[in-house]
Each structure stands twice: as C-alpha cells, then as structure tokens.
Specification:
Layout lengths: L1 E2 L14 H4 L2 H12 L30 H8 L6 E12 L12 E15 L4 E14 L7 E14 L5 E14 L5 E19 L2 E15 L5 E13 L4 E14 L5 E14 L4 E14 L6 E15 L1
Antiparallel strand pairs: 2-3, 2-13, 3-4, 4-5, 5-6, 6-7, 7-8, 8-9, 9-10, 10-11, 11-12, 12-13
C-alpha cells in the first residue's frame, strides 16, 4: 500500500506560527505529503504504494477442462491503464495548525495514464503520469493543481520469502490554482522492501519499510524520511472490499532542525460497480509530533469518491 500510495491532496489562512503564516504554500506542500499514503494509485501520483496485491483467485479444483482451461491462462492483460477520479472531502484542520484549527470541504479530481511491463519473471517496470486539481470551499488560497510523473522498478526475491524490493523516482510540480504560477517542485527518490501475506483469497496483509529522499525547490521545504507501514485488504463480497493502513514516518528537514514523527491511519471501503468503475469512501487520521511545536497537529479527513479505470 505504500508503493503507489501514492500521493495527493493539499490545504492556510489561519495566522499561527510565523513560519506557517508567512507562506500558505508551506501548508499546501505538507498537506500533499501527509495525504499521499491514504490514496490508491488509480487516484494519485506515483509515490509509494503499500497496497498488497490481491491474492490469486484461481481454484485448483476448477471444473473447467480442455480449451476452457487454456483460454483462462492466456487472457490478455491490457498494457495501458487510463484512470480518473472525482472525490469530495471534509477536513477538521485545513491548515494543519497546532491551535485555532479551521474546517473546510474540498473537491479533488485526478486523471492519468499508467503502464506496467514485466521485464523478467521477477522484475517489473511501472510508469505513471497524472494531473490533479484541488478546490476548497472556504479557503480558496489552498487551491492548487499538481502535475506528476513517476517510474519504478519492483524486483521479487523468491529466496527472501517472496518479498519485493522496489526503487522509484517521481517528479511533482505544484501550481497555484488561481494564478497558475508554480510554487513548488520536487524530485522524490524511494527505496523499499515489502512483503504480502495471502491468508486466504479474501484476506491479505502487507507490510514494508521505505527510505525517501527529496530534492525540492524551494529548498526550505526539502525533507527526507524513513517509514514503515502495515495494511490489511479484506474482500467481503465480489464487489465490496475494505482497506486498512497504518503508516509511520520519521521526517527530517535538510534546512533547520525540524524533526517530525508522523502517524497516519486510514480506512477505506470500496464498492466495485463494474470492472472499470468503483465508489470508495475514505477516512484517515494524521497525527504529527514535531520537535517544533508549531508543526505538531492532528487532522481528521473523510470523503467519498468515484473512480474509473480503463485498460487498453
């Protein structure tokens, strides 16, 4: 869940600590970083995704024979995936402030294109490009647009209990939603390892570790992190699934002495309408404990979205 988890939201009008009050962009950038692990890849930028792959639905006792069985094994997997989503959210702390919190609702829309290529039986290449917009009801100074591209390699290691090693690069460009001016760009480099435990065809548990380094402009917003995560995917029926994720990150900024311990807990329910359309409700709680009090905060966000994926 953290390998694609990937990215994706944003939120400052409130006068708090001088560093936040001086530039609303600081809150917007931080909000985008905090929300990224709570979003599935189909609706987000190519950050790191913790979602464990679904367990195989094949049945060794299947009563198919002959050509039927052969046809099952040669189903064509579309090489490209076009995705789009529209979601509405409510948050109780729009500016990620320590005190004097303000609530707001916002709309997000995302669309993009991704592809996966198997290089060998154990090595896979992933490419993604996406664009996202965020529009707020009360605090329009947080409106922004995001352009993202990413590339990743995943290597499954059979001798390491079938764990997967992954490396990814992502570029994000954030634009002011009103003026269209660029106010932040970031190059993200991630290395990690994850393991999925398929307990049954309906229940998977995934866990992993990741290291993340960034090159940002402006440099004052540049931060690196070490994170761990664990998630559960449960399928209640053919159409209804639940995803629970806990993500912890130790974040350290390259400028100054700021150090954060960030905890994120998210729960989502997804109802699959068709093989290309789904409806998802997501709630997540983020708690940030910083050595600089102004950057310590709690934020609870929840919403509902419609997601579409079309392979071709």
């Amino acid at each position: 869940m953290v390998r694609q988890l990937s990215l994706v939201a944003v939120m400052c009008l409130v006068m708090i600590a001088w560093s936040l009050a001086a530039d609303p962009a600081v809150s917007s950038v931080e909000q985008a970083r905090q929300l990224a692990p709570a979003y599935p890849q189909s609706t987000d930028a190519p950050a790191t995704d913790t979602a464990p792959p679904p367990a195989s639905t094949g049945d060794q006792d299947d009563d198919s024979f002959g050509s039927q069985q052969i046809l099952k094994g040669v189903d064509r997997v579309p090489p490209f995936d076009a995705f789009a989503s529209v979601s509405a959210f409510f948050t109780n702390n729009v500016a990620l402030t320590h005190r004097d919190t303000h609530s707001d609702s916002f709309l997000t829309a995302a669309f993009g294109l991704s592809t996966s290529r198997k290089i060998t039986d154990t090595l896979e290449l992933d490419l993604t490009s996406s664009a996202k917009i965020f529009r707020y009801a009360r605090f329009s100074e947080f409106d922004l647009d995001s352009l993202d591209v990413g590339v990743g390699l995943t290597y499954r290691v059979p001798k390491l209990w079938d764990a997967s090693l992954y490396a990814s690069y992502g570029f994000s460009d954030l634009l002011n939603g009103r003026s269209g001016n660029e106010f932040f760009d970031n190059h993200d480099f991630t290395l990690g390892v994850e393991k999925t435990f398929g307990l049954s065809r309906a229940l998977n548990i995934g866990t992993g570790l990741a290291g993340d380094a960034n090159v940002s402009d402006p440099k004052v917003l540049q931060e690196n992190s070490i994170s761990s995560y664990a998630g559960i995917d449960a399928a209640f029926t053919r159409h209804l699934e639940a995803h629970l994720l806990y993500h912890y990150a130790w974040q350290f900024y390259t400028e100054g002495t700021r150090r954060d311990n960030n905890h994120l807990l998210s729960l989502s329910l997804e109802y699959t309408v068709t093989n290309w359309l789904s409806i998802a409700g997501t709630t997540f709680l983020s708690v940030n404990d910083s050595n600089e009090e102004a950057y310590s905060y709690e934020v609870l966000t929840g919403g509902l979205g419609i997601n579409a994926n079309i392979g071709f």
